[in-house]
Write a structure and sequence with these properties.
Blueprint: E1 7-10, H1 16-23, E2 32-35, H2 37-43, H3 45-53, E3 58-64, H4 68-80, E4 85-89, H5 94-106, E5 112-116, H6 124-129, H7 136-149, E6 154-156, H8 162-169, E7 174-177, H9 196-202, E8 206-209, H10 211-214, H11 219-231
Parallel strand pairs: 1-2, 1-8, 2-3, 3-4, 4-5, 5-6, 6-7, 7-8
Helix pairs in contact: 1-3, 4-5, 7-8
Bound molecules: the ligand O=c1ccn([C@@H]2O[C@H](COP(=O)(O)O)[C@@H](O)[C@H]2O)c(=O)[nH]1.
């Protein structure tokens, strides 16, 4: 049975064994899992296969950003592994996103395809240093509209932008939000953050949560606390 929970747990572990050790304590009917750059670079497709074998839907968070042909081929390779969701950087532009979308369609692959807008670790000063002089909120809006018009199923953004994107792009456009910080957790390197409950109320469709669970003294207790907070939210 697949999860209809909004929770996606980021398995940011340095090895296959460490990731599976946590996955074996999670219930695939209560959350999805995310495989990112570190784990995939160390373990490759084996980790995806192992998680599928345990009944999890997998978000392969490799944030592809390259020329259109290369990204389309990488997205196809990810989708052929049967992952639930894969992503690209919206900053790669319309032609890149359209090529990825067309490749999935041509091969009848139903993996959800979303685009990263502005990383949740970035604030205005970080954008200014790379030559973007608008606010993070404005830049997220611009890239989300481009992503929607290029055929993406949704975006990665911070929960601080979810409410505006719900107005602009509708409920069914996915708003996948990392930078989720329950009141008990450290901010770490994240900058545009919200609590799980605030994020759901704001219109996030999925919450990506890593260290607040994976680095907690008792990961299962941390996850239960988040679920309890969500059960009380009016969404
Ligand atoms: O804008 C983004 C895009 C991706 N991420 C990823 O989400 C998790 C967040 O982990 P935490 O430990 O909860 O901070 C991590 O895998 C990032 O690579 C993001 O944080 N922001």
């Amino acid at each position: 049975m697949f999860s209809d929970s909004p929770l996606i747990i980021a398995l940011d572990h340095p090895s296959l064994d460490a990731a599976l050790c946590l996955a074996d304590r999670l219930d695939p009917s209560r959350c999805r899992v995310k495989v990112g750059k570190e784990l995939f670079t160390r373990s490759g497709p084996d980790v995806v296969e192992a998680l599928h074998g345990r009944g999890f839907q997998v978000f392969l968070d490799l944030k592809f950003h390259d020329i259109p042909h290369t990204v389309a081929s990488a997205v196809q390779a990810a989708a052929e592994q049967g992952v639930w969701m894969v992503n690209v950087h919206a900053g790669g532009g319309r032609r890149m996103m359209e090529a990825a979308r067309e490749r999935l369609a041509r091969h009848g692959l139903e993996t959800r395809l979303i685009a990263v807008t502005v990383l949740t670790s970035m604030e205005a000063a970080d954008l200014a240093e790379v030559g973007i002089t608008t606010t993070p909120a404005e830049q997220v809006e611009r890239l989300a509209l481009l992503a929607r018009d290029s055929g993406m199923d949704g975006v990665v953004c911070s929960a601080q932008e979810s409410s505006r994107l719900r107005e602009l792009c509708g409920d069914s456009f996915l708003k996948v939000t990392p930078g989720i910080r329950p009141s008990f957790a450290d901010v770490d390197d994240q900058r545009r953050i919200m609590t799980p409950r605030e994020a759901m109320v704001a219109g996030s469709t999925h919450l990506v949560i890593g260290r607040p669970v994976t680095q907690a003294e008792d990961p299962m207790m941390a996850l239960a606390a988040i679920e309890q907070e969500l059960a009380g939210s009016e969404v």
